[in-house]
Amino acid sequence: MRKWWHGLAAAGALLAALAAALALTVAGLRPATLHTHGQPSSSAADSRRPPLRFGPGGVFKVALFVDLHYGEDAWTDWGPAQDAASDRVMAAVLDAENPDFVVYLGDLVTANNLPIPNASLYWDRAISASRSRGIPWATVFGNHDDMPFEWPPQWFSPDGVPPLRCPALPTSTPDSGCSFRGTPRTDLMAAETVANRQLSYSSSGPRELRPGVSNYVLQVLSRRRTRDDDHDPALLMYFLDSGGGSYTEVVSSAQVKWFQSQSQFLNPNGRIPELIFWHIPSTAYVMVGPKAKSEIRKPCVGSINKEEVAPQAAEWGMMDALAKRPSVKAVFVGHNHGLDWCCPYEELWLCFARHTGYGGYGDWPKGARIIQVTEDPFSAVSWIGMENGSRHSDVTLSS
Ligand SMILES: *[C@@H]1O[C@H](CO)[C@@H](O)[C@H](O)[C@H]1NC(C)=O
Ligand SMILES: *[C@@H]1O[C@H](CO)[C@@H](O)[C@H](O)[C@H]1NC(C)=O
């Protein structure tokens, strides 16, 4: 009897240690509400966040919002009008598609155009479309989110600098309120997660991946409830910081190693399908994509192909790591506002989302890429839903 008990205790301790290690980066695997019985625990910041789960029909639907570029030219009428229009795009897509989850795929704000010390205020506006509808979300960083303010050339004309408020910060010297240095990624993430403990599934990721911040994994559990209720993931979503702004536009070798160890640990036999999200296309997109401005031909699927792919600065092995895993079905990026195609690469798909915001360059109609995953039998399909409710570019990512 004693021996049996000791063995169990040792196994329990090992499991607890593993779970603790995992909880650092796997934001979806948490005891959540299961053991609190209505008494919210104050220890873990996000302990009240329920696990993500496939719906009763075995479907999990994700909307991708990218390149919202909130906060441009706030000193004009034009800038705030653009932001109001971006609010309307997200409202229209969410009301038409009713997704289970939203991924904000970077460039939520144009921080290099923000003459305020705190980009979190605009960041918060971007995520409020999901929050006001009670839809959970995750964010990753783009190249514009933590940029310092760049003084526009017109401000040096005879008209000079428009009337600006330069708020005094608590610890500021008299001048620092108007220096607009950009809000660090970690501050943006902290403001988001602290203020949205139930709906934000974003995470600052492991320190060893700095200066990259938005590196984390979310698990979506099966709709089938097992006896212990919580350990049957049917989809893994990996979020990576592809850099830009305060540092180089790149997915680092350290991120590749992190991805390999996470995927090996969470999904050793590749049973669980995996989707990958980051902001800036990798160089593989250049290889598989149609030539800029040419027709999009099968097997690629999409509706706009108006510019060259603007890829990351280097490739340090992420694409090889992904291509080696048949469980990885697709990568989703934004960054290029004039591209919305998906093309196959080895056994997976490389997809652009669709420019969602009225901010940023390009006047192509706005919309959002939708991803719909069915768990049993597994399928993953995607399409683009437009602001006016039309739908196009249907593609099957699971074949
Ligand atoms: C920045 O904005 C966030 C809200 O998005 C707020 O919680 C925080 O206090 C603000 N910080 C400053 C210095 O204004
Ligand atoms: C919706 O917008 C698209 C452009 O994205 C256009 O081609 C289509 O005709 C519009 N549909 C309706 C019903 O207005």
From TrEMBL:
One of its GO terms (cellular component) is cytoplasm. Residues 1-23 form the signal peptide. Pfam families: Metallophos. Residues 61-337 form the Calcineurin-like phosphoesterase domain. GO terms for molecular function: hydrolase activity, acting on ester bonds. InterPro entries: Calcineurin-like_PHP, Metallo-depent_PP-like, PAP14/16/28/29. Keywords: Signal. It comes from the Eukaryota. This is Calcineurin-like phosphoesterase domain-containing protein.
